[in-house]
Amino acid sequence: MSGMSKIVKTISNIAFPFVMIYGLYIIAHGHLTPGGGFQGGAVVASACAMILVAYGSVWTMGKIKEKRLSILESVGAISFIVLAFLGIFIITEGVFFKNFLANTNLMFGTTVAFQSTAANINTAGVIPLMNFAVGLKVIAGLFAIVLVMAYATSKIKEGKTK
Amino acid sequence: MIYNIPFIAVAALILIGLYTVIFKRNLIKIVIGITLIESGVNLFLITLGFRKDSVAPIFTSNPDVSQTMSLPVPQALTLTSIVIGVAVLALMLSFIVYIYRHYKTLDVRKVVGGDDE
Amino acid sequence: MNDIISFISAHLPAFVVAVPLLGAFLTPLVSRIGDKSRNIFAIIITGLTSIFALLLANDVFTNGIRTYVFGGDYATGQTMVRILFEIDAMNAFMLIIAAILPFAAIVYSWGFMKEQTGLDKYYTLILLMTAGMLGMMMTGDMFNFFVFLEITSIASAALIAFWTNKGNAVAAAFKYIVISSIGALFVLFAIALYYGQYNALNMAVIADSIPVEMGFVDKIALVLLLAALAMKAAIAPMHMWLADAYGRAPSSVTVVLIGTTLASLYAGFRVIFTIHGNQLEQALNSWTIFGYEFSISLANMVGILLVALAVLSIFIGVFMALKQVDLKKMIAYTAVAEIGYMLLAVGAAIAVMGGDLEATAGYTALKGGIFHILNDALDIGLLFLVAGAVYYTAKQTSINKLGGLARNMKYTTVFFLIGLFAVSGLPPMNGFASKLMIYESTFQINPILSIVAILCSILLLAVFVKVFYSVFLGPKLPKFATAKEVPISMLIAMGIIACIIIFIGLFPDIVLQNVVTPAANALNDASSYIAAITGGI
Amino acid sequence: MALAEFFNSLINSLDTGSGFWNPLVWGFALLIVFLVIYILRGAGKTSYKKGTEQTKPFLSGNPETSKESMHVKGENVYWGFVKSMKFIYDRFEKMHNGNVSDYILWFVIIMGIFFLVLGVI
User: Fold this and answer.
1) CA C91, CA C519: separation in Å to the nearest integer?
2) Chain D: residue nearest B115 by CA?
3) Interface contact flag, D24 C361, Cβ < 8 Å
4) Chains touching B, CB cut-off 8 Å, 3+ pairs
5) Which of A107, C216, C316, C519 would suit a FRET pair with C530, their CA atoms being 20 to 30 Å apart?
6) Contact present, B106 and B28 (Cβ < 8 Å)
7) Taking a C-beta distance cutoff of 8 angstroms, is the pair B62, A119 a contact?
8) Taking CB atoms and an 8 Å limit, are B94 and A119 in contact across chains?
């Protein structure tokens, strides 16, 4: 797939940071508002896909290696599993997936009163951290899928014209 | 009656999806049929969680917590199902890319995968 | 030291799934170090998983049902709403199968996949598939079961298409993913029906809340679950994907695929025996004909349906296997027939259910059917590994072009003979013990079933005698003059399974008493499965 | 103690409700049968002479072809059985056409049968 016209490239350049920030916002506020790792990750990955469409898969493939993305993806997955494992190891009487940070006044550990309070981002324990991990995995995974598929189809087309 | 419309839509989506999978010959259309079934099932899950005159189940900064809220659990289930659906869809489409490369056709009657000689 | 042991044994259910999951995602990083370290890493991970699974199974066999609540407080529980694993003796029995097969597959792939590329993805996916399979076998939550089902299908579909340079491998993978995604969606639909009715996703809670008089929605959910899981378990006439998938996947993958198929079969049994366990003996309908009152219970109906499908599976599997030219497809069709044997026995046990099961022939049938799950997994697994070894040496699996391989591959031939004896139910191998139980009990229930089973078993022997003759016997063909025995790792993998087969064959009673009978009792006893959750922890 | 119990349980025979199965007893019986057959065979008359016409294969008087071309291909084994069961195989071949839509059609049919049997009756 080759790139599109200059208008498309310019517009996607302008829109890219906004979409990106919106996606990261959804990931970061996953424990407060509807959304979370997957949804935000999908938004960020769609921003990357927009760049892919505008500039063409060959150009994007030259900028971002698919191997890097797969390592990023496994880092996200590993941090998710490790967070789950920490539930066993860090505290006594823990279980797998135990929320060991909640209500401890550590990171994301503010105790919330049981009523409808104003949103406080510093709550919910390991859930935001797991959202980050999932978000990382989804960004890398979805973008890798789109990238590889676009690259493969462009290869088929080249083979046909030759 | 009006509350039954989602369930009718669910039945229609699943039946249309099954029809597409069984009677359409293009592989891409078969994939579309599967996503239709998936949308039907997701719609069914979401509909199960709905309560009459309810609001979205967000507790944060809610001025009136005594309002009826729709059930959040089916929404979480739907979300998981959507995530899985994305993975399945991507996998199926990449298989189709490979199938087209080998067979030069997307007709389901020709993609039978016989013995290799 | 004692603390460590008690700590590990407290968290065994989590470790069994989490260790292969962690290993799967660590594999891409480890493979940067080198190929050898990646292989060793994969073997260590699956070995650890197997040890944990066997420890857990041992724990369940000695101490009874284990539950593990994720993320909850260890003491208080809140079990009703949380995701949990519940392992009773039947799950523990399935865990034994899941402990043996992936380990053999990973050891086998060291030699078998040596010359392939993209192996870090291969190991990632095979570990993911193992994790999904183990999760399917242990979970006590319906939706969690669906998630594990999908994880397993996605990973196995990607692995079936591992040899993407062959068109038919990709076509087989596409068929598999279509079949399994539609099956899983219908499972999800049934789960949604249960959730809408009973506000619960936990299997035990659902089973507890379904009224004895079955409603219409329960019937629809049961039908959807049974049909979808039967398709995933490759029961005729929905078995056609299996021949493609088993035949086209690399042999090491096929061995794990057997485990996933059997996990689906187990889930079907769980749905019948546990979730609908209270309604099984309830009369569905009754008629008065000539003054006599006939009534038919749900158990009769389900049992008759399953037995009909089982006879069809045995028949189609054996007949199609006899005609196949491709060695792996042939073994795949015999796998269909073997699944038919299990279903025949368990279906017959369900059909005669009512009152005290232990006093009837149905109890022997149930034990025989469950015993046959283990035996089938080992036998078919060994045969697929042998087929992979033949492919490794000869680079083809068409039996028309093979011949005289026994002159080059002594050990592989011995392993094939063991598999042949075991799968066709010849004494003294393990297949005979379970098939004898199936024959005897089904003869008491209905002699025709037993006759069909014995005749098809003879045909099964004929199929493998044909393979043995045309692949291994005969003069040394010129094109295989330089063929060598397969690498040592493949021989070790085949040897592990062959040793277990011979052990079960020589001492069947020890396995039957310690493993199979508790599993049959646990499957038959839905109330204690339910009480482990609803009775409060 | 536990070890002794384990070894004792090894020689237990499998109880199938109306019969039993013990591989060790079976192996012992097989050994005796083999011994008897071996003794009977030893009592027979030997008429085998090495290096004579007797040892050569006899193919209705035709000359013997090379060993490689005499190996029967796998497809030709049980040729007669497959031929006589053609009416079944034709139907099965039609079923196993490799078309994924038909697989799903079978699923829907079985689901319909299950529904009719369990839901309606």
Assistant:
1) 8
2) D98
3) no
4) A, C, D
5) C216
6) yes
7) no
8) no
Instruction: Please give the domain boundaries of chain B with CATH numbers for all domains.
Output: 2-54+72-103 (1.10.287.3510)
Q: Which residues contact C24 (CB under 8 A, 6 or more apart)?
A: A77, C123, C124, C125, C127, C128, C131
Give the CA-trace dihedral at C59, C63, C67, C70, to 10 degrees: -50
Domain ranges of chain C: 298-509
User: Both tokens of residue C250?
Assistant: 């690399």
Instruction: Give contacts of D98 with chain B, Cβ < 8 Å.
Output: 111-114
Q: What is the pTM of this model?
A: 0.92
Q: How many alpha carbons fall within 13 Å on the CB side of residue C396? A: 13
Query: How far apart are alpha carbons C404 and C469 in whole angstroms?
Result: 9
pLDDT at residue A158 greater than cutoff 60? no
Tokens 């865990």 locate to C95
Give the nearest partner residue to D26 out of C364, C427, C475, using CB atoms: C427
> With contact defined as beta carbons under 8 Å apart, do A123 and A110 qualify?
yes
CB-based contact B113 C398, cutoff 8 Å: no
- The interface pTM score, or ipTM, of the predicted complex is 0.90
**Rounded CA separation D78/D56 (Å):** 27
Three-class secondary structure of residue C295 per DSSP = strand
> Token pair for residue C435?
């098939």
**pLDDT tens sequence across D41-95:** 888 877 777 777 777 777 787 777 777 777 777 778 888 888 898 998 898 888 8
pLDDT in tens, B80-105: 898 889 889 988 988 888 888 888 88
Structural domain includes residue A138: yes
Domain around D30: 2-42
| C174 to B96: CB separation less than 8 angstroms, yes or no | yes
- Reported as a single tens digit per residue, the pLDDT across C120-131 is 889 999 999 999
Question: What stretch of H or E contains C292?
Answer: strand C292-297
User: Which candidate, D32, A116, D79, A77, places its Cα nearest to that of C466?
Assistant: D79
- For the record, the structure tokens of C469 come out as 């003759």
The SS3 assignment for B26 reads strand
Instruction: Give the closest-approach CA distance of D41 to chain B in angstroms.
Output: 48
Tokens of C248: 């086209």
Q: What is the DSSP letter of C284?
A: E
Q: Which of C342, C333, C332, C331 is nearest to C315 (CA)?
A: C333
Number of neighbours of residue C221 by Cβ within 10 angstroms: 27
- Cα C270 to Cα A146, C16, C38, C519, distances in angstroms: 39, 20, 37, 12
- Enumerate the β-bridge partners of residue B105: none
Hey, of B112, B115, B116, B117, which one would you mutate to test binding to chain D, going by the most D CBs within 10 A of its CB? B112
* Chain B contact probe: residue of D93, D99, D111 with most B CBs at under 10 A: D99
For D65, counting Cβ atoms within 10 Å of its Cβ (0-12 exposed, 13-18 middle, 19+ buried), the class is exposed
* Residues C113/C38, Cβ–Cβ less than 8 Å: no
Q: Verify whether the Cβ–Cβ distance C475 to D117 is below 8 Å.
A: no
| B25–D101 C-beta distance less than 8 A | yes
Are C256 and C184 in contact by the 8 Å Cβ rule? The answer is no
Interface of C with D in 433-462 (CB under 8 A): 433, 436-437, 440-441, 444, 462
Q: Closest by alpha carbon to B110, among D101, A67, C20, C405?
A: D101
Give CA torsion, residues A21, A27, A28, A30, to 10 deg.
Answer: 140
Residue A161's pLDDT is what?
Answer: 41
Question: If you count them, how many residues does chain D have?
Answer: 121
Contact B91, B85 (CB under 8 A): no
User: What is the separation of C-alpha C185 from the centre of its chain, rounded to a whole number of angstroms?
Assistant: 21
- Say if CB C104 and CB C161 are below 8 A apart: no
- What's the burial of C181, exposed, middle or buried (CB within 10 Å: 0-12/13-18/19+)? buried
CA gap D38, D43 in Å, rounded: 9
Q: Which residue of C has its CA nearest to D76?
A: C400
